Amino acid sequence: MFNFTKINNMSNLENQDLIPHLNKDAIVSVQLGTGFVQQLAGIIPVLIEGKSQEELASIEKLIQDKQPLAPWMASIATIQVLIKTVFEEAEKIGMVQYKPLKESLGEVMSAPPENSPLSQSVPESE
């Protein structure tokens, strides 16, 4: 979790809590390990739990039509874009392997649970 700090100086900000905001033009490079990206992907099934196929199919249509998304839809789209971007960047540096679907599913099913990202100060790079 982000560590918000209290500013303690002699200006008019004294004794006020400040919340950090990125500059509007900020582009931040972040290193993410495989385990953290897997945890991001694990959020999607939680978000789609109980949703119909029609609801899920409507996300892409709403995005294409530039219509507002329900919060759960925007959350799914945001996580998918983040994961896609991670894979695109990993591909550029040769860190992506392609495996048969059956083998990939076997790895997912047999993988031990990862530690929660909230319990880690910085995700490990793998």
Could you describe the 3D structure shown?
By secondary structure, this protein is mostly helical. The protein has a domain at 34-114. It is built from four helices and no strands. The chain has helices at 34-48, 53-64, 71-92, 101-110. Helix 1 (34-48) runs antiparallel to helix 3 (71-92). The longest helix is centred in the middle third of the chain and has 22 residues, at 71-92. It is globular, with a radius of gyration of 19 Å. Mean pLDDT is 81; it is low at 6-10 and 115-126.
The secondary-structure element order is HHHH
Using the CA coordinates, give the radius of gyration.
19 Å
Overall mean pLDDT: 81
Class by SSE composition: mainly alpha
Quickly list its features.
disordered C terminus; 4 helices; globular; mainly alpha
Brief overview, please?
This protein is mainly alpha-helical and 126 residues long. The chain has helices at residues 34-48, 53-64, 71-92, 101-110.
Topology:
Blueprint (H helix, E strand, L loop, with lengths): L33 H15 L4 H12 L6 H22 L8 H10 L16
Helix pairs in contact: 1-3
